[in-house]
Specification:
By secondary structure, the protein is α/β, with parallel strands linked by helices. About 35% of the residues lie in helices and about 20% in strands. It has a domain of about 170 residues: Spore Coat Polysaccharide Biosynthesis Protein SpsA, Chain A. α3 runs antiparallel to α4.
């Protein structure tokens, strides 16, 4: 049963991950999102392998060794489905997204929700020479990501993005890059049309996480300098194929 939150807007929060969870700390991330949703009176839905039920068979076959790509398309299909089911807003948050300041993690009201959708902000900091134990120089890439997605009724972007993600996936041959229809495509579109961004829904690279755990450092300083505003939640990069630096 759908319920209205305090603003009168029916909102659903969706997350997904295979079971059992590969890392125990992911449960803390999931709990942080569930608790935040409950505090806001949002509906909450967790999906396991059923997230792939909306995908064509050819997508599953093409991505059988790269399920992260299939998930990037599947989340869009589920967002579309839930909007068609009558929700006014639907939010996607990756399973490794931690809401650490729930009191500051506000979704925009209807009057300020530009074009009725928002993407997450990625400020990615990495060393120029990652072979050194303590890198002396870092580089910053300012992009958008799909670990946080917000779409409302009547937005024009979700259907466009979904259709072209599926179209590009059908055309590509050989190995599919992990972020091909996710952050890479989103950032390319954003660079052209300047999509609305939820600036406090961020992403932390392993080197920024390491600096946070050690009390500071160059990567964290650069992250602060390039971030448009303080974060209230962030993706923790659990999907990186090489986690040696975490």
């Amino acid at each position: 049963m759908q319920k209205q939150n305090r603003s009168g807007c029916r909102t659903l929060v969706i997350q997904s991950h295979r079971q059992p969870l590969p890392f125990s700390w992911l449960a803390q991330c999931l709990d942080s999102v569930k608790n935040w949703a409950a505090q806001r009176d949002f509906d909450y839905q967790f999906l396991g392998d059923e997230i792939f039920e909306l995908l064509p068979q050819w997508v599953l076959e093409k991505t059988q060794s790269q399920r992260v790509v299939a998930t990037d398309l599947a989340r869009l299909k589920w967002l579309q489905k839930c909007l068609r089911a009558g929700y006014q807003r639907v939010v996607w948050l990756d399973a490794d997204f931690l809401v650490f300041a729930p009191e500051k993690f506000h979704l925009p009201g209807e009057s300020e929700l530009a074009e009725n959708y928002r993407l997450g902000r990625e400020v990615w900091v990495q060393p120029i020479d990652s072979g050194k134990e303590v890198p002396e120089k870092h580089k910053v890439y300012k992009k958008v990501h799909n670990a946080f997605l917000l779409f409302g009724q009547g937005n024009s972007f979700l259907d466009f993005y979904t259709a072209h993600a599926e179209r590009l996936l059908a055309k590509v041959t050989g190995n599919v890059p992990p972020q091909f229809i996710g952050p890479k495509l989103l950032t390319a579109l954003h660079n052209i049309v300047q999509c609305p961004v939820q600036e406090n829904a961020g992403m932390l690279s392993p080197w920024v996480i390491r600096d946070i755990l050690s009390g500071g450092g160059l990567a964290l300083d650069m992250f602060h300098n390039k971030s448009p505003e303080p974060l209230a939640g962030a993706n923790l990069s659990a999907s990186l194929p090489n986690k040696r630096s975490v």
